[in-house]
Every structure is written in C-alpha cells, then in structure tokens.
Specification:
Mean pLDDT of chain A: 91
Distance between the termini of chain A: 66 Å
Structural class of chain A: mainly alpha
Oligomer: heterodimer
Number of helices of chain A: 19
Largest interface: A-B, 77 and 68 residues
Largest sheet of chain B: none
Radius of gyration of chain B: 23 Å
CATH superfamily of the largest domain in chain A: Cytochrome c oxidase-like, subunit I domain
Number of strands of chain B: 0
Mean pLDDT of chain B: 86
Number of helices of chain B: 5
Bound molecules: protoporphyrin IX containing FE, copper (II) ion
Structural class of chain B: mainly alpha
Shape of chain A: globular
Helix content of chain B: 55-70%
CATH class of the largest domain in chain A: Mainly Alpha
Shape of chain B: globular
Strand order of the largest sheet of chain A: 1-2
Number of strands of chain A: 2
C-alpha cells in the first residue's frame, strides 16, 4: 500500500488533492488569523484558494513534475528508458504518458466526454425553451445551463479536440518520432480534465454555477456568487494547457521535420496547426489576463472594473475579444487543415493552390488580430472604432474565401469517394459558407445593431462552430479512426450519423436566423408568445440532433472494440502517417523517412511524397530498391484514380 | 498496398534524439525511438523558451492595456491624488536588477571557459541581486501608503509591479536550481544549456522591468 502510494499515479494524485485542499484551508486560516479577518472560517475563501492550489497537488501526485524536480535538485535524472511511453493496457491511458499517440487519444476521448456533458446541458436549455414561460428551471439556473454549455464546448471540446488530433497525427506527418517536449505534452493534457471538472462542478457551488455566459463580462462577473470563480480559474488551466501545446507544436514543426520536408512540402494540416499555434501563443495570454483581472477584483477587491473607483469596464471587453476573436480562428484553422487532407485524398487530386492555402492561413492569423471590436458595436465604445473594424472584418473574409474556392477547385472533376469523412467535409463547406455569410452580415454595423444579442447571433455561431468546426472534427475523427485505433468504423452508421446530423442541424439552427431578425433575445429563459411555434420546432429538432450524436458514440465504441482490422493505408493517402502500420509502432518510425515530393500529388504519375531510406542509401534489410514500397503505393493510387475517371 | 508498414525497431539501442541529453544507458540495449532529424539550426529548448517569452510579453501586454485604459483613455491622474511613487528607490532597485543581468552574463562566460569558480560566483550573485530586488519591492509595498483596493491607479500599480514581481520569483526559483546544480558540479564548457535557457528568461524579466519602471514611475 505504502509503495503504491509513493508511486506516481491516480492514487497518489487523489491523496495529494486532499492534502492540497487541507493546505489551502490551513493557508487561508493562517492568513485570516494573522490579519484579524472576520469571520475566521470563510468557506468561500477556502474554496477559492483550494481551486488554485489543489490542481498543482493533483498534477504533482500524478507524477507530472517528478522528472523536472529530479533535474532541478541536481539529482541524476533517471536514464530515459521510455517506460513512460506507449500503452499496452487501458491503464496506460490514466497515467502521465509521454507518447504523443497516447496523449492524442487521451485528449480526444476527454474532449468528447465533455462534449457529451455540454450536449446534455444544451438539451436542457432547449427543453426549457420549448415553450414560453418557465418549464422546469428558474432563470438563474437557466443562465448557468447555457454558460456552462458554451464554456465546455469551446474550452473543453473544440479547442482541445483539435489539439488532440494534431497531437496524434502531426508528428507522424512530419516524420518525427514524437513531439519536441514529451513531458510538457503530458502536462498539457492533464491540465485539461482539471479545467473541465472545475467548470462542471460549478453547479454545486453555493449560489449555483457561473451564469454570465462564456464571455463573463465584467462587472457582472465580479459581483456574482462564487460559481463564477470555477470558470475564472478553470479557464486559466485550459488556457495554460493550450499555450503549452501550441508551443510544443511550433517547436516540433520547426525543429523536427524529416529530411526533405521543407515548409512547402508540409501537409496543410501541419500548416494549419502552425498557424493556429501562433494564434494561441500570442492571443491566449489575453484571456488568461482578463480572467486574472476578474479574479483579483472578485477575491481581493481590486478595481480593474470598479467604476466608482476609476476602473474601466470596457477594458474587459477589449482584452477579452482581443483573445476571443482570434479564438474563433483557433477553433477553425485546424479544421481547415483536416478538410484539406480529406478533400485531396477523397477526390484523388492535388490540392488546388497549395501555396495560397498556406498563405491564406497566415493572412488570417495576421488579420485576426485587427477585428476584435466587431463584437463591441453596441458596447458604447468610441464610435470611430466601428468603421475600421467593419472594414477589416470584411477583408478577413477574403482569405477565407480563397480557401473555400481552392477546396471547390480541388474537388472539381475529381474522382469523388463519397464516404463518411468526405460527406462531413462537403457538409462542412456548405454549412461554413452559410455561417460566413451571416458573419459578414453581422460585420455590417447597422445590421449588427439590429440583431445584436438576438438569436441571429446564436444561429451564426452555431453555423460556424457546429456546421463549421464540429463537422471538420467528425471528418477528422472518421478519417483517422483507422490509424488511431487500428480498426475500421462502420461505414453505414457513419453515413446515418452524417445525414441525421446534417438534417437536424439545419432544422435546429436555420430558423434561429428568422426569429433572431424578428427580435428573439439570446441568453434569456423566457420569450413572448410570438416565438412559441418556432421554438417548439427548434427544440424537437435539437433532440434529434442530440440523438444523432449517440449514433456516433455507438459506432466509435462498437468499432473500436470489434471493428474489422484496418490496413496501414485504407484511403491510399500519400502523407507519412499512412505509410506506417495502423496503429503506428510505438516510436512511429524505425528510421526517419526522407521526403522527396509534395504531399498531395494524387493522380500524378510517379509522384512520391516520402521514402523510408535516406535517398541514395540502400536499405540493407529491404529486398526491393529504396522507397519502392512508398512508390508502389502512390502508383497504386494513381492507377486507381485513373481507372475511375 | 500496406507494404509500406515498417517493422519496428531491432533493438539497436541507439541514440535518443528527442529528450534531455546526457542519459547513460547502463550498457544494456534497449529499444528507443530513431533520432529525430534536426530541421532547424535553432535549439528546441531555446526556441521553446523564446515562444514562452512571447506569450509572457502578451500577458504584460494585457496589463499594459489596462494601464492604457485607465491612464490614457479615461485620463485619470497618475499617480492618484495625494499618492507618491518612490522614483529614486525604484531607480536604485532598477540598477540592482540590471546589474544582475551582467553577473549572469559573467557566469555564462565563465563556464564556457570551464571556470567553475566564476560560474558559481556569478550565478550566486545573480540570485542574491534578484532576491534583493524583490525584498526592496516588498518593502516599497509596505511603505507606499496606498493599496490596490483604494483606486484604479493603485490596482494598476500593484497589478503591473506585482505581475513583474511574480516573474522575478519564478526567475529566482529557476536561478536557484541553476545555483544548486552549479555547486553540485553540473555544467561544463560543452554543457551549459541548462544555464542559458533560464538565463534568457532572467534577461527578459530584467528588460520587462525597465519597461514597467519607465511607464509606471517615470512618465
Ligand atoms: C467570415 C467570417 C466571420 C465573420 C465576418 C464573423 C463576424 C462576426 C461578428 C460581427 C460577430 C458579432 C455578432 C454580435 O455579437 O453582435 C460574430 C460573433 C461570433 N462569431 Fe463570427 N464571424 C466569422 C466567422 C466565425 C467563425 C469561423 C467562428 C468560429 C469558428 C465564429 C464564431 C463566432 C462566435 C462564437 C460569435 C459570438 C460571440 C458571442 O458569444 O457573443 N465566427 N461573428
Ligand atoms: Cu469575431
């Protein structure tokens, strides 16, 4: 028992979490006693300190810091025996694992868990809105429902699930044995469940969960019950996790590409994560700071947002949106990358305008920092800021449009394989275009003033985030499912999932444009009779949408356990992750491959992306000449494409 | 066509490219990853530290945004009426912190020449100078006569200097580990990355202080 307790793992983490809470209590009591604060025992203060301290104890208990502490204290750090690497049983997914593939799976599964929690909350929101008047929750609980829903979906699902998928495939794609900093990678993952559990547990806080929306505008957020702090502090952990991962991606991409993998030979998924990571490293500190301001105002009585003492409430919105507009691209660019992979493979054609695709990603990164105040047209900020922001917002639609047209040109006259990943990709293009159109409408000042805080905005964000981001996530999950699990998913169920989602998604969110323009307010538990019909319709459709997700869950669980074994390269793709077994060997490659051509040369005779021996150096083990396997594979793809055209 | 699937390692027990350097293998063979290709001349930990510093700069950026809104957009007087900022003491403190950057540099140069004494003296004095800075800063808080709860100016003052102080603290912890390791005989003319990387962070903390000092105390 004692030995078990000393070994890093969940048990030690649990015990140390309790120690952390006790530590917080003692610390708090000591400080209060020293400063003669009344009352001496203040449950809220203790909870607050515990929220900040206990996670570090948890991580320490898990063993996230062990090696670093050895290093720092000058002890000989244990020789790296790679015992932290790989997974042989499910238990290996519940410890600090340094294998990027294990971490990728940990990320994806965790984010889908919180997606289901967030989805359940959405179902409750729709149940409450099914008819005017109060159904089963009071207005404050209702505010809590949609706030936690949005926060989980954004900070615990969309952002991390992309990080998870990229964690799995990105090192493989660039021919790296792992990420640059495997231990930091593990730490990034483990901060995630902390944030998610914290936000979810806020429902048990005195006064209910945080109820300010995911935007947590001050001074509302500094004057509400303690549940708010579960968001404020949770965001710090989610944010730190994303910054650490982004840093890791950037360093990996810059320093660990295979020989011959120049920037202009990188798959677009890698480009997309490169761009996203730049955004994260630069923008995410702003949301951390905005919540730190709230924390200081709330807990220590600072005056960042206290107008009576000279604070400035608009400053919150500026700082928040300076992160959160780039954040919408953090939630979209990795999806762009996924779509580029899937469309090229499933149309058997090279990406149209590869370089423009990469440049437009970088253009979005730059322009993304110049539009934040389009969220603040009605905030009472200086009116002169509006028009420049409207113009920059319209401009940012240009690089986005370039991508859309490049995708269309890619599939144009291709040999389309309309299987599940492809359906999701095509669905994404249509839905995202609709979301982009309502976005450009919102950028036009008079329209925005009219529909501000109405269901029109709700429709917009769901078309871009659900029809946009989530569709790309499904495309990516289906596309890499064989690689990640070594099993094929059930294609028929995948199609059922797509069509059910596609139809019920539109039934749910399209009418919201209409009632939004007519003036139905967002974030309010009640509405007038006038909107009753549509809301009942929307609620029923949304339940169908909820059910469609269960089809996905069933498909994934059943296929993972008993699906047919996947081949190494079921899609006949050229990128490197498909040139190793499914799932890949523990260290990805026996020897790092050499890249000799672009990643998307489908249908180009003789084109090769990567070979498994340094060019010109014969492989002593192989019977065939160097690179024959990869070449044969590409040739097979060419041949196949040829027969079908 | 999955002939491309490559069999995994043959137990060569060869190089471990991707993690902390300097492992010994106790002679036994074990299976490890292939060495990663180095696709850039920049060192991975160094690049990581630079990116981390970029995001740190952005945190300061958010705090400066708050400062900007209070002082410029709202036009509040600075410092608040009746308050006084100890420019001189803070100026001396600035000199102390800046000189710690030089002692750090001395430590780095020393170890490159395999001068362990120089390393130890340099790194220890850097640590002490940093600790002195923090001590004077705390002393200033005690005596300055206003609190962050009093007014927005106080909030911004404590916010910026406190954020910086927190970074000094983190930097001191990093320097402490370097100091411990220096006295335990780690580092050599060829192996000094463990000093350089925390070193860059410390230089960043110094430069940041100059910006904070100029904006908060001087202009
Ligand atoms: C052409 C592209 C886009 C344009 C022009 C655009 C424009 C806008 C504008 C002007 C608003 C403010 C509406 C208001 O609050 O009154 C808005 C809100 C929003 N947009 Fe977009 N958008 C675009 C794409 C996206 C994308 C790709 C995403 C995410 C993947 C996204 C997510 C959101 C979200 C979450 C909000 C609501 C924020 C809130 O809670 O208040 N948008 N958009
Ligand atoms: Cu925006």
């Amino acid at each position: 028992m004692a030995a078990k307790l000393r070994a890093p793992g969940l048990l030690r983490a649990g015990v140390l979490t309790l120690v952390g809470i006790a530590f917080a209590a003692i610390l708090d009591l000591t400080v209060r006693a020293a400063t003669n604060a009344e009352p001496l025992v203040n449950g809220e203060a203790i909870t607050l300190v515990a929220l900040l301290a206990a996670p570090f104890f948890f991580l320490g208990g898990l063993g996230a810091f062990d090696e670093w502490l050895y290093w720092a204290s000058g002890k000989p750090s244990r020789p790296e025996d790679h015992s932290g690497h790989g997974a042989t049983s499910w238990k290996d997914y519940f410890r600090v694992n340094t294998d990027h593939k294990v971490i990728g799976v940990q990320y994806v599964v965790t984010s889908f868990f919180f997606m289901l929690v967030g989805g359940l909350l959405a179902m409750l929101v729709r149940a409450e809105l099914a008819a005017p008047g109060a159904q089963f929750v009071d207005p404050n609980t209702y505010n809590g429902l949609f706030s936690v829903h949005a926060s989980l979906m954004i900070f615990l699902f969309i952002i991390p699930v992309f990080a998870g998928m990229a964690n799995y495939v990105l090192p493989l794609m660039i021919g790296a044995p792992d990420m640059a900093f495997p231990r930091l990678n593990a730490l990034s993952f483990w901060m995630l469940p902390i944030a998610g559990v914290m936000m979810t547990l806020s429902f048990f806080a005195p006064g209910g969960s945080f109820a300010t929306g995911w935007t947590a505008y001050a001074p509302l957020s500094t004057e509400v019950p303690m549940g708010q702090m579960f968001f404020t502090i949770g965001v710090q952990f989610a944010g730190a996790s994303s910054i650490a991962t982004a840093l890791n991606f950037l360093v990996t991409i810059i320093t660990m590409r295979a020989p011959g993998m120049s920037f202009w030979r990188m798959p677009l998924l890698v480009w997309a994560n490169f761009a996203t990571s730049l955004l994260v490293v630069i923008a995410t500190p702003f949301v951390a700071a905005s919540q730190l301001f709230v924390l200081l105002d709330y807990a220590l009585g600072f005056n960042f947002f206290n107008v009576e003492r000279g604070g400035d409430v608009l400053m919150y919105q500026h700082v928040f949106w300076f992160y959160s507009h780039p954040a919408v691209y953090i939630m979209m660019l990795p999806g762009f990358g996924i779509i580029s992979e899937v469309l090229a493979v499933k149309s058997r054609k090279p990406i149209f305008g590869y370089r423009m695709m990469a440049f437009s990603l970088l253009a979005i990164v730059l322009l993304g920092f110049t539009v934040w105040a389009h969220h603040m047209f009605v905030s009472g900020m200086q009116p002169w800021i509006r028009v420049p922001m409207m113009i920059t917002t319209a401009i940012i639609a240009v690089p986005t449009g370039i991508k859309i047209f490049s995708w269309l040109a890619t599939i144009w006259r291709g040999v389309l394989h309309l299987d599940t990943p492809m359906l999701w990709s095509l669905g994404f293009i249509t839905m995202f275009v609709l979301g982009g159109i309502s976005g450009v409408m919102l950028a036009i000042i008079p329209i925005d003033i009219h529909v501000s805080d109405t269901y029109f905005v709700v429709a917009h964000i769901h078309y871009v985030l659900y029809g946009g981001s989530v569709f790309t996530i499904f495309a990516g999950i289906y596309y890499w499912f064989p690689k990640m699990t070594g099993r094929m998913f059930d294609e028929r169920l995948g199609k059922v999932h797509f069509w059910m989602t596609f139809v019920s998604f539109n039934l749910t969110f399209a009418p919201m444009h209409l009632i939004g323009v007519q003036g139905m307010p967002r974030r309010v538990a009640d509405y007038t009779e006038q909107f009753a019909g549509w809301n009942m319709f929307i609620s029923l459709a949304s339940f169908l949408l909820g059910l469609s997700t269960l089809v996905f869950v069933y498909n994934v669980v059943a296929s993972w356990r008993g699906g047919t074994r996947a081949e190494a390269n079921p899609w006949r793709a050229m990128t490197l992750e498909w040139q190793v077994s499914s799932p890949p060997p523990i260290f990805n490659f026996d020897a790092v491959p050499t890249v000799v051509g672009g990643p998307y040369e489908y249908g180009v005779p003789g084109a090769v992306h990567g070979v498994f021996r340094p060019a010109g150096q014969p492989d002593p083990h192989a019977k065939e000449p160097a690179g024959a396997s990869a070449r044969a594979d590409a040739a097979g793809a060419t041949h196949h494409g040829g027969t079908e055209t | 066509m999955e002939a491309a699937a490559v069999p995994i390692g043959h137990g060569h027990g060869h190089a471990h490219g991707h993690d902390a350097p300097g492992h010994d293998h106790h002679g036994h063979e074990h299976h490890g990853p292939p060495p990663a290709n180095k696709s850039s001349r920049v060192d991975a930990p160094m690049l990581g530290m630079l990116l981390f510093i970029i995001s740190e700069v952005m945190v300061f950026g958010a705090f400066f945004t708050a400062y900007f809104f209070i002082r410029i957009v709202q036009g509040q007087e600075w410092p608040a009426e009746g308050d006084h900022l100890p420019k001189l003491i803070a100026g001396i403190n600035t000199l102390i912190l800046v000189s710690s950057s030089f002692t750090l540099h001395w430590a780095e140069v020393s170890i490159k020449e395999n001068n362990r004494r120089g390393l130890q003296a340099g790194i220890a004095s850097t640590f002490l100078l940093g600790a002195t800075f923090l001590f004077i800063q705390i002393n200033e808080y005690v005596n300055i006569g206003f609190a962050p709860q009093d007014h927005a100016q106080g909030t911004i003052f404590y916010g910026l200097t406190g954020l910086h102080g927190a970074h000094v603290l983190i930097g001191l912890l990093a320097l402490l580990t370097v100091t411990i390791r220096a006295f335990r005989g780690h580092f050599s003319a060829h192996d000094h990355r463990g000093i350089e990387i925390p070193g860059i962070y410390w230089h960043f903390v110094d430069v940041m202080w100059i910006v904070v000092y100029l904006t908060v105390y001087i202009i």
